[in-house]
Amino acid sequence: MINELEKIKDSLLIKDIKLEELSSMLGCLRGVIKHYKKGEEVLSQGAEIKKFGLLTEGKLQVVQYDYLGNKSILSIIEPKQIFAEAYAYVNKIPSMNVEALVDSTVLFLDSDKLSSPCHNCCTFHKQLVKNLLFIISNKNVNLTEKIECMSQRKTREKLLTFLSLESIKQNSKEFYIQYDRQGLADYLGVERSAMIQ
Amino acid sequence: MINELEKIKDSLLIKDIKLEELSSMLGCLRGVIKHYKKGEEVLSQGAEIKKFGLLTEGKLQVVQYDYLGNKSILSIIEPKQIFAEAYAYVNKIPSMNVEALVDSTVLFLDSDKLSSPCHNCCTFHKQLVKNLLFIISNKNVNLTEKIECMSQRKTREKLLTFLSLESIKQNSKEFYIQYDRQGLADYLGVERSAMIQ
DNA sequence: ATCATCTTGTTGTTTTTCCAACATACTTTT
DNA sequence: AAAAGTATGTTGGAAAAACAACAAGATGAT
Questions:
Q1: Interface test with B, best of A66, A155, A191 (most B CBs within 10 A)
Q2: Chain B residues with CB inside 8 Å of A72's CB?
Q3: Which residues are CB-contacts of A178 (< 8 A; sequence separation ≥ 6)?
Q4: Is the CB of A160 under 7 A from strand D?
Q5: How many helices (H) and strands (E) would you count in chain A?
Q6: How many other C-beta atoms can be found within 10 angstroms of the C-beta atom of residue B107?
Q7: Partner of A29 for a Cys bridge, out of A17, A69, A109, B20, CB 3.0 to 4.6 A?
Q8: B186 CA → D7 C1’, Å
């Protein structure tokens, strides 16, 4: 268990929390560690969620199957990232699956326990909540930006909106793009070959 | 001030918090009340945000001006709803304006103070954080669903995805749609007249 | 160095959307 | 009841995107 904590020590979720405090966190939040083989389902569509996950090792993908059975990749989870936290908090049944891309290890934490801290109200608990608020708010901002791009009607406008946002974010007319062409096309929901015209 | 609290007493933000505790909240979170005339700017694009808002009276709209100057309405804020909370938490400069549609009153609360509770760690403070987590998570889920619809390539598929999600949410083959045709077209980012074919 | 694989650019055809204009139905106001 | 306003349905032509298929270039492994 201590071993797993070492791997996630610079995760945003536990930012500014001392290593000593982490082991007590596991008790407070009913931490459970699970291992998954490549290809296994970590969370499945339609199953209720009470805990959110923190990936300690491996790689996961969040996928969605629409009413026609088409698969689309919503996001890739890398080590130290959390997932399913929003669904855990609103007690909604998620409409996506999480699958292990390689052999993976996940630390599940109780979302209820996190937001209703124990009576002693330990300092690390406050910090955890603060970190979680930051992470979810950040996702929120990113989702809003994605929608801003996708709301544009034309591929050209979607792309220009994306580039404009990146330029602002990186505060320069030159900036780094984290996607390759196909990836960017998928992100914007357009055809790769249409992006160049 | 007490007057304002009365108006928001069944806001999700202060769910399960006693009225007596609310006045101490105002102190803790450095509550500030501001009034706006119809048409005035409540928050402006590019200005840093340290507080988030809770609308106590009136009606606001969140709008965005893209690089071409085109205006698009992101959301309408009704009384008891909070706004700008995600941007306040990540300390990112918002890319949208908030404008008063009618004369409005806003209670601004300090986001830092909320997530770093005072030493005594009052019980209402815990509840506030819990409520905020719920609200933000819920927005997150809604944004994700919108993206799910908009990711579909064709208008027909966007619409079917939306309908399918609503059907699941309302757990019935018959369900209520909160938008009129034009509103739904705007939400999905398509042409109204193309939705019917 | 060669081969296989992945990424990107290019093209032509088909499909779909956009846009603008107008007809019809429904609501609200006077 | 009439009028004005709003929401919805319908259309045809222009514009754009989707799709599929292939070429050229880059990358990586053996």
A1: A66
A2: 151
A3: none
A4: no
A5: 7, 8
A6: 25
A7: A109
A8: 15
What amino acid is encoded at B105 in this protein?
Answer: T
Strand order from edge to edge, sheet including B60-65: B41-43, B97-100, B60-65, B71-77
| Chain D nucleotides covered by protein, CB below 7 Å | 7-12, 16-21
8 Å CB contact between A72 and B161: no
CB contact under 8 A, A86 and B140: yes
| Per-residue confidence (pLDDT) for residue B135, from 0 to 100 | 95
What is the rounded average pLDDT of the residues B54-71?
A: 81
| pTM of the predicted structure, to 2 decimals | 0.91
Residue B98 DSSP code: E
Q: How far is CA A62 from CA A31, A44, A78, B19, in A?
A: 22, 10, 11, 42
Contact B23/B1 with Cβ under 8 angstroms? yes
The one-letter code for the residue type at A70 is: N
Candidates A73, A116, A144, partner chain B, best to mutate (most B CBs within 10 A): A144
Shortest CA–C1' contact from B192: which nucleotide?
Answer: D8
What is the side-by-side strand order in the sheet with B51-57?
B32-36, B104-110, B51-57, B82-83
d(CA A105, nearest CA chain B) in Å: 24
Condensed to tens digits (0 to 9), the pLDDT of residues B153-177 reads 999 999 999 999 999 888 888 899 9
CA distance A147 to A165: 12
Tell me whether residue B10 is exposed, middle or buried, using C-beta atoms within 10 angstroms of its C-beta: 0 to 12, 13 to 18, 19 or more. Answer: exposed
